[in-house]
Amino acid sequence: MISKRITAALAGATTLSLVLAACGGDGGDSGSSSSGDTVKSLTVLDYYNNDPDKSLVQKGLDSCASQLGVTIQRETVPGDTLIQKVLQQASSKTLPDVLMLDNPDVQQIAATGALAPLNDLGLSGDGVIQGMVDATSYDGKLYGLAPVTNTIALFYNKDMLAEAGVQPPKTWDELKAAAKKLTRPGRYGMAFNANATYEGSWQFLPAMWTNGGDETDLTSPQVSEALQLWVDLVQSGSASKSVINWTQGDVKDQFVAGKAAMMVNGPWQIPALQKTPNVKWDVVTFPLNKPDQTPVAPLGGEAWTVPLNEDQAKQQKAADFVKCLNSDENELAWAKARFTIPTKTALLDQYVQEVPSMKAFTEQVRTARARTGKLGDKWPEAAKVIYQAIQLALTGKAPAQDAFKQASGG
């Protein structure tokens, strides 16, 4: 089962310019081959096929191309067609020199033998958040580096909470109480995406993982407790029954329209929120079931990889290109322009100082996990069971404690 892209293409911030610094001074060209100087062009494949992301990413690619003295031939495709195209290219040995993959797909493509281990080309994951290293490694070797990442947290309408005398919730009990108090005719206290896609599974992971639930045992009490939270919010009327059909974009629309006081969502929604200045919002990390828990959310974002190439010089130049994309300067520039988060832990504090609205997301990234961290390329199968169980429970076809057993065919 081929995993699909979980989040929509990240919306870039048109109000911020992307000025990518030269890549020198961030690791130099260690591991590069002198014969690499003969390489004059590289091919690149990615799925940033819509603006503003397409143009913002192009600036980053052009910056590194200039730094390395190469021209690039870039092809962009829709996100839901990338993996099929990559598998076709792998079988026909026509893969590009540099390939972008959604981070949950890296292990699957690495398992086919199509990618070059980056460790052998002078690159490493040193200093990168562990969750992303886990996502882009396979059989102990690193196959991708992601300049930026993203995750999800809890947005809230500041005016609505202040009017109701409600503090941003820190626990599940506080979340349920706040959502109930914030609910009134024409407005729900809480909105989230629980649809029957990988997106629905993605939005459920902060509750499941924070509570100690694990995709290796979806019938555990910790997992059903997390599902009960979703059930309680819907059955109490604090969240709409329509969450079973909503996308993350739909959730954002409810929040922007004033029809939801809180929502689970990601920072790619911030540009849209900035276009509605009458909506005063802030973000906190996802609430805990018990006060001693640590919030654990899933990591989004894309990694850049180097497909195997018989032309060793070109393969090394491609690796140098990936290294440039992951320089400190480029990580910060890309993060600021696109409301994403640098993957190097040493950059996180500086980033929050410069983009305070990303504070909660950045905190969550420090402890966030890769979806493929435990199951590898088997993750999509678990994700399907998760969203099917959510559907069963929210439509009343199974109680939360039985939904996962039923969804997995037990």
Give an overview in words.
The chain is of the alpha/beta class. It is built from 16 helices and 13 strands. It starts with 40 loop residues before the first strand and ends with a helix.
**Terminal Cα separation, in Å?**
20 Å
Mean pLDDT: 90
Compressed to H and E, one letter per element, the order equals EHEHEHHEEEEEHHEHHHEHEEHHEHHHH
Outline, from the CA principal axes? Answer: globular
* Gyration radius from CA atoms, angstroms: 21 Å
- Widest β-sheet, arrangement of strands: 2-1-3-12-6
Helical/strand content category: alpha/beta
- Percentage of β-strand residues: 5-15%
Provide the low-confidence segments as ranges.
1-36
Q: Please give the number of β-strands.
A: 13
Helix content: 25-40%
* Biggest sheet layout: 5 strands, mixed
Describe the structure in brief.
The chain is α/β, with parallel strands linked by helices. The protein contains 16 helices and 13 strands.
What is the secondary structure topology, with strand pairs?
Elements: E1 41-46, H1 53-68, E2 71-76, H2 82-92, E3 98-102, H3 106-111, H4 130-135, E4 137-138, E5 141-142, E6 144-145, E7 148-149, E8 153-157, H5 158-164, H6 172-182, E9 188-191, H7 198-210, H8 221-235, H9 248-256, E10 260-265, H10 270-274, E11 281-284, E12 302-305, H11 312-325, H12 328-338, E13 341-342, H13 348-354, H14 359-366, H15 379-394, H16 400-407
Helix pairs in contact: 1-11, 1-12, 7-8, 7-15, 8-15, 8-16, 15-16
